[in-house]
Amino acid sequence: MFGISRGFAYFLASFKISLRYKVNVWLQVLGAVILVSIQYFLWKNIGNNNESLLNGIEVNSIMLYVIFSRLLVFIIPGNGTTSFISQKILKGTISVDLLRPVHIQVSALCYEFGKLLFNSIFILVPSILLSILFLDIPVIKVNIDQFLLFGLSFTLSYLIAFQMSFMIGVFSIWFGNVWGVREFYEALLMIFGGSLIPVSLYPTFFQMIAIYSPFQSIYFTPLTWISNIDHFIDHPILVQVCWLFIFSSLNHFLLRYALRRAVIQGG
Amino acid sequence: MNRIICVKNVSKVYRIPKSEKGFFKGIKSLVKPNIVEKVALKDVSFEISEGEVVAYIGPNGAGKSTTIKLLTGLLLPTSGHISVKGQDPFQYRKQLAQMTGVLMGQRSNLWWDLPLQDSYDLLRVIYNLDKKTYIEWSRYLIETMGIEDLLSQPVRMLSLGQRMKAEIVSIFIPKPEIVYLDEPTIGLDVVTKQKVIEFLMHINKQFHTTIILTTHDLQDVEKLCKRMILIDKSILKYDGTVSNFIKKYGNMKRVMIKSDSDNVPQLPNDFTLSEQFIDGWEFIYDQSRYDKRDVLAMIAKLENVTSVSFKDPDLSLIIKNMFREDFEHVWDQ
């Protein structure tokens, strides 16, 4: 369906290519543990200074949130997806993919799945184990419903992030190099998406903007399920579904228009 | 033979926004872009039958790559009609991709970081090929091209010639019915080029694969193709057999003059200097205007000439001179 079986080749390619760069893996695990440690000690200190509640949220919840947000950065689609499409546009190799019997978006998504599997096995799991082993990470009781909702919410956030990063990649047709757009997107993700700290810690004004932005659906919404932080919007998963629909549709139309322009360039 | 490609009165006009210099003009062009129209193809028509090997030739910017993009469904023609296997390639691009192989210049069909064998295996998945058939077919292609030793090497470690051989094999992995090769022998040494040409000839003879080849190397054309389509300045100039082309436009003769002197021999204006060598010059002239004896008489008057020889024109000479403005009168006759 949708060429997924043919796209499996891109999944395999991505996984095999990642396997060939093993040194990177160990350094990335080390980097992840360092990032987690920074968050851990920062929030532990805040907690020790009698600040057991911040904006009505327990420090332990925030600590869990920020630690997992650092780890999700390794698996949520971002720069890799943008580069996948933007480099092909800039180098003109997009025509090779367009001349295969697989939709370009399916191939990009399958390629991302390959990285997801690799990063989950070789970066996420070791980083979580090392963090649990060396740091006194708080354990919050999460019931099975919350855990399942986290799974569903994470899947949606993964797909929204994919669609948004893919769209930035397509912008290469007009902007050439898109690192500026990419940086801007990362900044918005930090402030309105809660990739750095929970959106609930911001002043009300920022929270209001975050509510109406798609960014909170990427990090904040899934993480609230496992850190017991209030979602501050009704039906957060429904909101995610809406954003996914909006960005998928936008990409559908954008691609139809943009790829015609992309293949004109060069002989 | 069945007609497999039909191009009827096809034109392609690119509409390119012209960038303006200066801040305010730049802002203005964002609101109201200044669009420039560039004609890439003008009223081109041809048909290609199953199993044909056709050379599609012309100078840079003539519209060769545009034609391939139109035939593969990457671009939509501005006017006219294209059908490949009875289908509109733009509308049925993915369906046609299953039976089409395309090599576009230096754009790789392989995965740079993976061993060559892995790339071929991945193509099997993309084209949904039966495993047993794939193993037999890929082994056949690999042995025919002689690249067995390269299979375990990552593609990025291959030399240009090795990579091009590997790329060509990859194009044939899905057993395509139609193959478009955009400059497949560019930058290759003589031995590799010969191997590639032999491979293509072999596949065409054995499996009747239709091959459309764009190239600047006219020796390849003479070896591989019976038919050629010549395009220049977006217009189709010739469509027919290579031998007829040479007959039709080959009323030129080449004369090689070797001399001890460094000065270019002075001959009438309609003798065109085609090539310069360390010890001589090659001129071309119109046989209908000058008899061989007249030419020899003119050369006899020159000083320090050590030898004279005459040669028939080959395809490359004809094409080379076809695009020279000072020789255009020959083609307008």
TrEMBL record, chain A:
Key words of the record: Membrane, Transmembrane, Transmembrane helix
Transmembrane segments: 21-42, 62-85, 116-135, 147-175, 187-215, 235-255
UniProt xrefs under InterPro entries: ABC-2_transporter-like
Keyword Flavoprotein included in the entry's annotation: no
Protein name: ABC-2 family transporter protein
TrEMBL record, chain B:
InterPro entries (alphabetical): AAA+_ATPase, ABC_transporter-like_ATP-bd, ABC_transporter-like_CS, ABC_transporter_ATP-binding, P-loop_NTPase
SMART domains: AAA
Coiled-coil region list: none
Pfam families for the chain: ABC_tran
Source superkingdom: Bacteria
Signal sequence annotation: none
Key words, A-Z: ATP-binding, Nucleotide-binding, Transport
Residue ranges constituting the ABC transporter domain according to the UniProt record: 25-258
GO MF annotations in UniProt: ATP binding; ATP hydrolysis activity
Protein name according to UniProt: ATP-binding cassette domain-containing protein
Annotated organism of origin: Fervidibacillus halotolerans
